[in-house]
Amino acid sequence: MDRRDFLKNLGLMGVTTLAATSPWLSTFATVEDSAKERCRLGMIGPGSRGRFLLSFLAENPKCEVVALADIYQPSLDEALKIVPSAKTFNDYRQLLTDKDIDGVVIATPLNTHYQIAMDAFDAGKHVYCEKAIAYTMEETLALYRRHLETGCIFFTGQQRLFDPRYIQVMEMIHQGLFGDINAIHAFWNRNGDWRREVPSPELERLINWRLYKESSKGLMTELACHQLQVGTWALGKLPTRVMGSGAITHWKDGREVYDNVHCIYEFNDGRQMTYASVISNKFYGLEEQILGNKGTVEPERGKFYFEDYGPAPAPAFVQMLMEWEDKIWGSNTFAGSSWDPEVARNNPGEFILGKAPETDGTSLLTEAYVEAVCTQKQPPRIAEEGYYATQLCLIGHEAIVQGTPLPFPEEMKIDYVPYGTKVDELTS
Known about the structure:
Blueprint: H1 3-10, H2 15-21, E1 39-44, H3 48-57, E2 63-69, H4 73-80, E3 87-89, H5 92-96, E4 103-106, H6 110-122, E5 126-129, H7 137-150, E6 154-156, H8 164-174, E7 181-188, H9 204-207, H10 219-235, E8 241-247, E9 260-266, E10 272-278, E11 286-292, E12 295-298, E13 303-306, H11 316-329, E14 350-351, H12 362-375, H13 382-402, E15 406-407
Parallel strand pairs: 1-2, 1-4, 2-3, 4-5, 5-6, 7-10
Antiparallel strand pairs: 7-11, 8-9, 8-15, 9-10, 11-12, 12-13, 13-14
Helix pairs in contact: 6-7, 7-13, 8-10, 10-13
């Protein structure tokens, strides 16, 4: 979906509604006025994720990717197939000395994000940094503060902020169409060892950095970072406490990070957001199940369901399954009439945008970053959403490691009114 189709689909919501639900979309308000503007970007870390972002940037007429930096030559070689005219560096600091580069895109291993982004800000470069934006909560706060001090643009890799499904359904949630949101169950399941082929043993920790504690915090920073932001976006507040557990139960291959994690995030009003990730079973895939007393939202599937789904007959295949169950079990009490009226299994739901999802928001996120760099205007709230997404996954990981419930640290709260954290971020 391109930007015009995206805005057309969301146009029914109106400017006021968009400003309240997703104020970062104001970035697109200037696209016509800035038609002649151009920005020059450098890509630091053109690995698999970096090249995915690069594929969108290379198609943007307002953007020229002029430089690439990576310590792994094969990644540079692959990236040059997308932007053959770009200069290449084995040291990102050489890229940052180029006065003609306006901004950078950082898609390197987690433990390198902080230093690279700080160096980029200090060099006067605008920054797009993949999530999670830092390896520790302290680094995350320092990085956000440096963004404020320098005035440079700061985007994070939270593409759901630009996903039409999520934008549309958040407005429905905040209007109260699904009633009181009392719980959120988020999960991301896969079945794979998360390993990549290594051409030589000495490159193991470089290529498979996600599997080792020195460079990664595993499933919480790589996957949960996306989905926890969805939960706080829906609820409009931060959790006050988190507890969790994790282990290596299946992929016992020398990795150091967990292959399954489970967390509970508690809010001050008693509501909870759960998060789970298992990479030895993919049957249920990924979803954020947002549960209200009037309806349910499954934004990843792009659907919502109201509790008072009407008395229309179930689809034929569902009726067939129900009849089949009755023949086998008869009037059994554990799966028959005693509980069947309490569920909504016949409800087919409705598509949030009227059809199945077509995009995850990444193309629009990169376009928004380019627009922000061209206009030199930081979109409201986008840096803050990325900041808290990282902090939430990091404190969840820490709760797992320590094996005890942890409060959200007061000293890590920033001035962000939508989440009720009005503080002086530069002096607290």
